[in-house]
Write a structure and sequence with these properties.
By secondary structure, the protein is mostly helical. Helix content is 82%, strand content 0%. It contains 17 helices and no strands. Helix 1 packs across helix 7, helix 3 packs antiparallel against helix 4 and helix 3 runs antiparallel to helix 11.
């Protein structure tokens, strides 16, 4: 990292990714499986429970879209980012623990919404902390390190949980009860991993201007670089998050057994670790926007391949392909955005970022849910996700091409 070792504060910031990634790994693996099991026991068909889960994810993102900029502004304006960060991650971890106490699929879904909202709010504060914990020229690699160690670190509680699930019959537990234990393990892991950052972080960038979301949106409208990125980001990251969030639910619909999906997604975390670090290193030699473009293009191909998913080996191959590019597209998008926004308004701008990103996944999950509901076929929903990624790819690269042409014109004018 330019010959410098990680500082204690940078390590603490990275460690929070290790803690919250354990929860998001549950969101992409055990949570949808247990939900669908509970729904099935209540007589709900697989395709219909996929619809319910999609709608729950969409409701979550609507709530975050409303609350995100508000909490982001509070952190910027009043130097209370640490306070709101602690409140949000503690609330998320407690809700995660509470997922283990119900057998009702509807109550389970309600608690899941609370946990996911708190998790997402904590990330708004966490992402905006990147400005304070490191230098601008180190953001790409620090952001990549966060995702990388998040992938591998989250495997520890997941492997423990997976062993309990796979050995549930030998230790006298039902499969569902074994899955519920994973929520307790994850909640504790999340809290413990968050303590160092909570203790060490001190906010440096404070906004002395009394702004509001309307003013920030006007600023973004006049900043073409930020605006074009956010529009492209809206489409491509929406598809990425939907694939991550709906993978196991879709896998069950096409007949993949639970154990195959869990093991494949564990492999995803392990493979994602080195590739996130690799892309972080590559960002020193190649332009960040070029690397983002490659990762988004790869995700479009991955989404098309998902349409042919009908057996376990294809799900495993899909998981490996996702692992290679997942960290790159998330980490580099975060650090790229952090460099092009005003540092003193990081919280507000990352609140908007969350609307266009995790908040915008409302459209991806809702679109997949509606398409599946209307056709009764999950593959139609996956095709719609592939289309969104392709649109994002085109907008992102279209903006880059126009900017490149303008630069050439400037050079030509200067020459003559």
């Amino acid at each position: 990292m330019n010959g410098k070792k990680l500082t204690s504060l940078e390590k603490s910031w990275i460690l929070y990714d290790v803690g919250n990634s354990a929860f998001i790994l549950l969101v992409s693996t055990i949570i949808p499986i247990l939900f669908k099991n509970l729904a099935s026991q209540a007589g709900v068909a697989n395709a219909q429970s996929t619809v319910y889960y999609s709608y729950a994810a969409s409701i979550t993102t609507i709530i975050v879209a409303i609350l995100g900029p508000i909490f982001g502004k509070m952190g910027d304006r009043h130097s209370t980012r640490k306070k709101h960060f602690i409140i949000s991650f503690v609330a998320g971890a407690i809700a995660c623990l509470c997922l283990s106490i119900t057998n009702s699929y509807l109550v389970f879904l309600g608690i899941f919404i609370l946990a996911k909202v708190a998790y997402s709010i904590s990330l708004i504060h966490y992402d905006s902390m990147l400005m304070d914990v490191t230098d601008k020229d180190r953001m790409d690699e620090i952001s990549s390190q966060g995702f990388a160690w998040g992938y591998i670190g989250s495997c520890i509680p997941f492997v423990i949980s997976l062993m309990i699930i796979l050995l549930s019959d030998k230790i006298g537990l039902t499969m569902n009860n074994a899955m519920k234990l994973s929520f307790i393990i994850c909640g504790i892991w999340w809290i413990v991993s968050s303590i160092p950052l909570s203790r060490q972080y001190n906010q440096r960038c404070v906004n002395s201007e009394d702004t509001n979301i309307i003013k920030v949106l006007k600023e973004i409208k006049n900043n073409k670089k930020v605006l074009k990125f956010l529009i492209a980001f809206f489409f491509y990251i929406d598809g990425v998050y939907t694939i991550i969030e709906m993978a196991t639910s879709y896998g069950k619909d096409v007949g993949i057994d639970d154990n195959s999906m869990l093991l494949a997604l564990l492999l995803t975390q392990i493979i994602a670790f080195p590739f996130a670090l690799i892309f972080g290193k590559l960002s020193k030699k190649y332009k960040t926007d070029n690397l983002i473009s490659i990762a988004v293009g790869a995700y479009f191909i991955i989404a098309l391949f998902a349409l042919s998913l009908d057996c376990a080996w294809k799900f495993w191959l899909l998981a490996i392909c996702v692992a290679i590019f997942q960290g790159a597209v998330q980490a580099l998008s975060r650090s790229y955005y952090a460099r092009i926004i005003p540092q003193e308004k990081a919280g507000e701008y990352f609140g908007i970022y969350d609307i266009f990103g995790k908040g915008a996944s409302f459209f991806g999950t809702m679109l997949m849910g509606i398409a599946t509901h209307i056709t009764g076929n999950s593959r139609v929903g996956v095709f719609m996700i592939a289309l969104m990624i392709f649109i994002g790819f085109c907008i992102f690269n279209g903006g880059r091409i126009r900017e490149s042409e303008k630069n050439k014109e400037v050079i030509t004018d200067t020459t003559f």
